[in-house]
Amino acid sequence: MTPPRPRDTGRVSTRVTSSRLIGRTAELQQLEAALADASEGRPSLAFVAGDSGVGKTRLVSELLDRAEGSGAEVLSGDCVELGEGELPYAALVSALRPLARAGHPALDALDPRARAELARLLPGLAGAAPADGEADAPAQGRLFEAVLGLLDRLGAEAPVVVALEDLHWADPSTRAFVAFLARSLCRERVLVVATYRLDELHRRHPLRPLLAELERDNAVRRITLAPLSREELGAALEDILGAPPAGDLLGRLYARSEGNPLFMEELLAAGLDGRGGLPATLRDALMVRIERLSEPAQELLRALAVGQRLDHELISETSGLDPATLRAALREAVASHLVVAQPDDRYTFRHALLREVVVDDLLPGERTDLHRGLAEALERRADKAPADAQLLAGIAHHYAAAGDQPAALATSVRAAVAADAVHAHGEAAALLERALDLWDRVPDAEVLSGGDRGELLFRAAESHLQAGDDTRAEPLLRAALELVDEREEPRRASALLERLARARWRLGRSEEALANARRALELVQGGEPSPERAAILAWWAKTRMLQGRYRDAARAARDALHAAEATDNRAALSAALNAMGVALAAQGAVDEGTAALRRAIDIAREHDRSIEIESAEVNLADALHMAGRSREALDVVRTARGESRQMGYRVNWLDAVISELAFELGEWDEAERSLPDPDRRFVGVELVNLELRRAELDLGHGDHDAAAARLARVHDLVMGSSEPQWHGPFGSALAELRRRQGDLDGARAAVDEALDRIEFCTEDVARLARVSATGVRVEADRAQRGRDLGDADEARRALADIELLVARVEAAADAEGPVEVAWRASARADAARAAGEDDPALWSQAAAAWDAIERPYPAALARWREAEAHVAADDREAAAGAAGAALAIARRLGASWLAGEVEGLVARARLRLDGAPEPVVAADGEPAADDPFGLTPRERQVLALVARGATNREIGAQLYMAEKTASVHVSRILAKLDVRSRTQAAAVAHRLGLTDG
What we know:
The chain is mainly alpha-helical and 997 residues long.
């Protein structure tokens, strides 16, 4: 069944579609439910799948009609079949163009930067000029964020439905946009509905992996349309005819169409009485309708079949029909329900299958002439006004289809430039690869393309890199290198090697990447400084910095600075200062390092390079934070967030940094508020960063299941990284989680894994100290457990491991950095605990060290341990003071787990905090004067036997009491000690000396 929505310009003589939707009640209800969710701020995606002609478009059209009727904003676009899919953003442009033409107020309300991004897609957008291009990978993300911002503003007034038809023909950028919406929509009142043909999705179709990823999400609906039943087909037939079908018409149509509504309609249109031989296939039925038209109308259809979406002027130029004949032919085609006029005044076929039938019927010469005519007509249009990416891509496509190889090569290169300008890097790469395929078949290819083959290979690889396709970029760069003589063109070879190093680094082939980078450096060593030398040195410095090799990074950065300043390579200058600043600060030269980072920010601002600005701002905040100046770091990143006009994931990154710093400074409410909505979907290192922030909050709040789920989600991503900034917090968080769960072996494994990965390549002492100190904490628990259970071997092993871990922390703290000093103080206190010499003075020193750098949570942890040590030393007054301070901080932060631990200690030790009531004495006797838990003498006798592993029957026999009475005593002891098992009770008894004598 076909859509009633597009505007017909001719008089309809015979209706061939039903006037109402039939047989899709359940499917329509699913879509309306999705729209209702979107109306309430729960956006979703719905994919409508089915074979050709089964009614996908009619179903979606019914939804759009109802949505419009209820006041929703409807945006609709369709993908275009252009071979390699090099027409960028076809469906998106088609959907947004009516808004731009109408001057929708939502466009005026956008930030100027967002309007500038949208102007890339919609040339002539009132009041917007395209922003200067930036050579950074997230550029497409800025464009998508601009579209998302527009959808959000539209949704503030009414729900928005975005319909994308024929997604199986989508270009790479449209697929990327759908993926972006799937992970970015969170509270916007937006429903995205996309249709695709099941019979088009061959095994290697590029849409398959996207669907496999998205359709696993519970927020994504997949609606598969089956053929109509006989009864449903009969109802549709009766609606079309205005009366029940006579004779065996229904049976004949159902047998032939097998419930495909479009096939039924075309069979019906071929002969209303149903007599005679019916066409064998749907395509035959469609061809019957087409052949009934006049020759001018058929000529019109041939031109439209090749052009797919044409306005009146292009149809006129391509078809060769005179104005009067063309008007008559258009009316005839529209009246026959073969062609419809879209809201943007372009004509299309009523159904894609109709176009395909006409295309298949074209003679080779007809096809070539039509493609050439369209290419020339579009080229004339492009000469009159600035051409957009879609227009130029269309010209290139039609010249290629016409077999005009020289024109196809030249226009493909030109269209690739336009595609890159709108961040459609995948399409640009496809266009450039087409030019490369034509290279050997076209005379004067260098003249037509404006460069040699090596340059074209490089540009194609660069477009793939920008599109995130490092796998395809790598062989193109290797091919380009083969065409370059390193002795004759060392700088050019160096530039290619630098890009090859980047591609291989992203592919996880770090050794090959570093070898390429070293060779690139060798080629530009000595002689005059060059931009290429500055670029490769800046990249080398960055990789060294990310791996924690700070001395190497600082040396490379200084060399890069010299080359960049000599050649005025401002991008390399900013990048080198960025890497050098981090490296210097990490080595203790904090003021020198932060000065370099501030200069990097200033240079990036001079050239409006937003990604570089925010990268340096984030690194400045991190350098200050690692130096113990977290309050200053938070001010830096708050200011950056407030000033940032950059849209895209870097804003989310700034939010994650704010969350991290606010968490450390004890501002947990802000830490949670700052994080992007959890319903938004992220990938890669951005996902790692955000999930680590949330996992630390979960651990703080005591939500261990949530923390475990988050850490599991990013485990593989962290393991695939070589950066200490991820291994440090991940390893520490995982070890602490497992420690709390009682899995000391698993906790130690997490510590060892993190240390192995960090120490392999790092001078990152702050993160090394953190992980090592976490390991000391784990092994201190193991040593205590060994003593509690009488396992001397386990205790000895733990103490031996602690010695090595403490040595690591001590080495990290040699430079007396305040963060490392605080970790050292905590590690020393835990080491004493492990040795059975828990010292409250050491814990007090640790708390003071954390207080000095405004880290209230680890300070509170230290005070809790201090209170435990005081209890063991039988200094209940001092214990109460430390416990009270820890509990106050824990409650202020919302640190439920720590608060529970402190409250348990207070209850077990019967500590009286300021303002707390006197402890309640047990009913079965007076507590011993020296017992901090209120145990009676009899209960201490029972506890001594529990600690030796006695059963209730054995306890009764030794103490001359009934087994049931022994059980009651044990239950009371567990309650007073605030533990859950006999083993835990025994451990507490051994640790605190409750069984002596």
